[in-house]
Write a structure and sequence with these properties.
Residues 6-66 form the HTH tetR-type domain. The chain is an all-alpha fold. It has helices at 9-27, 30-37, 41-47, 51-74, 80-97, 103-112, 116-142, 152-173, 176-191. The model is unreliable at 1-5 (pLDDT under 50).
Length: 192
Amino acid sequence: MARNVEFDEERAIQKAMEVFWKKGYNGASMRDLTEAMQINSSSLYNTIGDKHQLFVRCITNYVHGRIKEASAHSSKIKSPLKAIIGMINDCVNTILYSDNHCLAIKTTFELAGTDPDVMALLKQDSNFTHGFLLNLIQKAIDQKEINSETDAETITNFIISIFTGWHESYIIHKDPIRIKKMAKYLISQISG
């Protein structure tokens, strides 16, 4: 008779996500994953599936967590401009002070072009982020916190591209002053 698999699946998914965050999809071995999850490989295969299925679950949790967090935060926003500045500063803090940079950006560079399941999840994350930021920018324009001649769509695309560029810049140069100066300049351009 088969033994029942008992483990905290959500906690295990979080532990696996940390491995993928650190090593990437291709760099993470099944041994790395099962050790971090504190389960054996048969438990993993019986409950979640193979490495790819586990990765898709991790990315799904990551994307849904970001959406849930942003949605909860949006109800508290009084000043759209302050919220945009907060997003910019959060991006800087994540890049400079977090061991885990944006998993979506990291995964985009590693897998998005070759894995349709991952691409669909990353596109969902990107579309949500774009819509969320576009809405904030439009509200800031409507409330006259940002110049009314600003094109909300263009500035949204610009900011999102900048976030990706900052991640790349910091990985290559490890220069926090460069990132902080670029953030200060971006904020001055938006609010000036």
